[in-house]
Structures are given as structure tokens and as C-alpha cells.
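Hi W.,

Here's what went into the run:
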Amino acid sequence: MTHKKHITLESIIAKHYDALPTAERKLADTVLEFPGELAAYTATELAEIAGVSKAAATRFFKRLGFNHFEEARRLARDSKNWGSPLYLQSKDEQPQSADQRIAHYLDEEQQNLRKTYHSATLSELDVICEQLVKAKRVWLLGFRNSHYIASYARWQFIQFRSDVHLLPANAGETMAEYIADLRPDDMVIVIGVRRRVDPLINIMQAIKQTKAPILYLTDPTAGKTSAYARWTIKIPVSSSFLFDSYTALMSFTRLLAIETFRVSGESGRKHLKNIERIHDTLNEFE
Amino acid sequence: MTHKKHITLESIIAKHYDALPTAERKLADTVLEFPGELAAYTATELAEIAGVSKAAATRFFKRLGFNHFEEARRLARDSKNWGSPLYLQSKDEQPQSADQRIAHYLDEEQQNLRKTYHSATLSELDVICEQLVKAKRVWLLGFRNSHYIASYARWQFIQFRSDVHLLPANAGETMAEYIADLRPDDMVIVIGVRRRVDPLINIMQAIKQTKAPILYLTDPTAGKTSAYARWTIKIPVSSSFLFDSYTALMSFTRLLAIETFRVSGESGRKHLKNIERIHDTLNEFE
DNA sequence: TAGTCAATGAAATTAAAATTTCAGTAGAGT
DNA sequence: ACTCTACTGAAATTTTAATTTCATTGACTA
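Here's what came out:
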């Protein structure tokens, strides 16, 4: 095993600690109190916190063996991000080992999740959920990949409210009949991540004309389609691997269900209880 | 509205995100990629990473409402120490604000993902993927919730290999016929997260007798069922919210597909190309 | 007591980062 | 084709941080 040990700022300080003069020892103590946080502070701030002069700070890092403060800051910062492979290698080259690939994959997944839940559009969530409770009937629509998500979303909603339906996934005649039947007090959740099929835009337009409000779950590449939706939520699906990742989308539909359930209050809770009972009964016979 | 909101850099960015011009959006993406780490970088470095000019960086932070970059850096540094909401409040009390609930939710999702990919069982991944490539036919089986995952997983696999089938989700006669047809050079992926249905164990037993190897994707509550599987991978689904979370499970099936594709090499690549072509053609007419 | 020497911080200097200016450009509207 | 307008990055400028200088201190030694 020839790998060079992972040098940390802490270990370097420890090595010199005994030989440090008073002012610099104060600095050392200060730095050690903010483990890994050094990079977030300037040398001047550090000096202030430690109650010593700026000159002392400069000398301190020189004595530790750095050429200048910037080097120490780099070390502190980089030894922290050591774990995240996403930034270690340039984005286009393939990770070598399975471990690396998996770490990279995990990283991307987490990032998509974070982006999803930091999105500003979530401020509308309350209103959307209320609408989902108020709506007489809820319709879910999704083609292709989006269809899988739509059907799973439906399953979640029928846990606590009735009249939640999946619109048929075949374009054409049948779809038109369903749309004709939509009413303003219905609500439609359209799931349309890329690759979107061409007729989606027409269908959404048709739905809009029925005055049934549309919640449109899509990805950041959505174009004009969102014009027909009352609410549009963009969920990142991009991935440097094969296929887009619907992980965040799945996650979000569940959040939507959870929040809607919360808003629905008593009536939803009752429904859920019923379902639970039915499940238990089914289990005995299945 | 009097509740004090926990303002984070992320939430501020999210609020402005849609209105940002290209260069500044690149910066936004870059910042979001370094959660909480902003304080460790200078505006210049940020601009370099994002591939935009320093001027853009200055404008970016001004647009977000800061007086200067230093303010943003301060916020990032200080709000980092707020820590993750998961540990801030005791588990049983409900988070108050929607923001908090969402943060908590995100935290759980990420944790499930991390647990999934840090699991030791992943060492078998190579072997599993090879088997998935070698297998004459691949069968996917899942009841109830697991059925949604199974059907999505199938869709991913048919992108690059043929003969991938969904076993019917209705217990009873039909299932028996399919199982009787299984051969040792087939492979079966059983998805069985709770609540598992009773007959699953019998079905898995029956499959085992056909000598077709079983990859069993389940959750940590799996009991004796795993006895019949050649490989068992436990994926956490637990959640303090309503319903279990299949986010990590979805994510994992995609990884499985990706890695299998990688192993399959040329033949898979060819198949994928065909599919791409067919998709494009379909798009024109749909 | 005088002499040496490391240590120290205030202030001067230098280096670097952030901001502003400005000229060029792309896009929307007429 | 022509305006407007908003966006952009290179370069100039300003601001801020880091380093160096230097005079002073105090501790130790002869």
C-alpha cells in the first residue's frame, strides 16, 4: 500500500503545536475549534476571532509550512470535498471503478433531489394541494415514461381520496372522449417529462378549454407546453448516465400526495383507514 | 405571516432562478452544486467554475438581493451551522412550516439513498449484471406497489436487451403457468417491498425449483422470503411520513439497468441505437 | 547592566478579489 | 431594417485582504 496519507490541516497544526508562540497558539486553538470550516473565513477574520494581529496570522501559516494563507485555505476546503467524486474528476471522463461510478451516481441523484426541493415553485404547493382536495375528480395523464409515474401517483392518491383516475395512455379517439367529459371542478395532473410526445401540447390545450385546472409536472426542458397549465413544476431529470433519472420526480409525487393528505384533514384520514382495513382483509385471502 | 423563515442561500436562489439570465443561471447551478460550501470559495473562483466572467458573478449576487458578494458568503457560512432539520427537532413532533416539512422530507430521501448505495451487498453487483446479460430471458415480478417499480424497471431493460418480460401481477392460475415455463438460463428479478403479499413466498419457492436465479429487491424488513433468492438486496423504504418511500428503490433499479448495460457492451449498445431510431420515427407520427 | 533575540502589532506595502465601466452583441418588438 | 433593451465579458478601478516592514517589548544571558 503506497497511497500517501490524507493530510489534514488539523494534523499539520498538531505537529507544530508545541513549538508555537503565544499569539500563534491562540490562532491554532481558534482554527481547531472550527473543524473544516477554515475555508469559510479570511485570515483577517481569524486573527480577529483569536484576538491577535493580522501579521500573526500570516506568520502562523508560514510556520506551518504553507507558502501563504491561500494554500491552507485550499487544503481545508479540498480535504472536505474529498468524498464527493463529482468534483474530483473532470465531468466528461468516465469513473473507473464500480465504487466510483456508484458514488458518482449517488451524487447526481442527490443533486437532482436537492434542486427539486429548493425550487421556488414549491411556494405554490399549498394552493395546489388545496385544489387537489377540493376537486370533484382528479385525473392523471402521462405518456411513455411519464405513464409509469402517473400510475404510481394515482395509486398514492387513491389511498386517501376517491375519484382519482388514470387517463388512457393511448392518443387518439378515446382520449378525446375523456377530455370532453372534464369539468371545471375537476383537476388534471399532467406528467410530461422528456421525451414528450408531440400530441401532448394539443391535449393540454384541449384540457385547458374545459377549464379544469392543470398541474403540470415536467422537467426544465419544457417549452411552450407549460402555457396551458395553471401550475408548472419543473423537476430535474438530467443525468450523465444512461436514461434520465425519474428519482426526483417519483419523490416529488409522493410529497405531493403527503401534503395533499395533510391538507385534506379528517376526510382523507377516514378514507385511509378504510383502505387499511380492506388491505388487511385482502391479505388473509390472497 | 409571522413565522420566522429559515432563509438559506438556496431558497433565495430558487426564488430568482426562473428569472435569471444565462450566465447567472450557470452560476446558480454551480452554487447549488456546492451545498453550503459557497463560503469556501471566492466569487472569482465561482465564476471560473461556472465558466462566466467575474462581472457576472457580481451581478448575480446583486440580483439575488445582496449588497455585495461578502453578504452572500456570510449567509452561506452562518446558515450552514443551522444543520440538518432532521436532527434539529425531535422526531415525533411535526414540523411546523411547509419549508421545514420539505427540508425534513428531503433529508429522509437523501438518507435512504445514501444507505442504499453504501450497502455492502453492492459488491455482488458485477456478478448480478453479468447474469442479467447472460440470461436468455429476464422476468420481472412484483405485486402491488412493487408492480409499479417492476414495470418501470422492465421498460428500462428493454431499451438495450430483448426478451424482458413482466410476470402478470395477478396471483393464481396464470402465474403458475408462467413459472412452469421458467428455465435455469432465465433470470427473475423479484421486487418485493412491504407490504408483501402472502403468496409471494410460495411463488419464490416455486421459482427456485426451476433453477432460474432470483435477484430479490426488497426492504430491510424482508424475512424468510430471501431464502429463495440467489441475491438479495435490501433497500430502505422507511419514512416518517405517509407511505413508504420507493425513491431509493426506483433509483437503484436504474443503476441496475445502467450497470447491466455497461456490462453488456456492444450488443446492448446496438439494441439501444435501434430503439432510439424507432423512437424518433414514432415521434413523427404520434 | 548591556546585549541578543524571538515575538508582537501598527502601519505601510503589496497582492488579490470585487465592483464598475464600457463597448459589443443578441433578441424582441415595430 | 431599425430600435430598444437586456446581457455579456474584458479591462479599468476600487475595495479589501494578505504580507512585509519596523519599532517596541520582554525574556534570557553574560
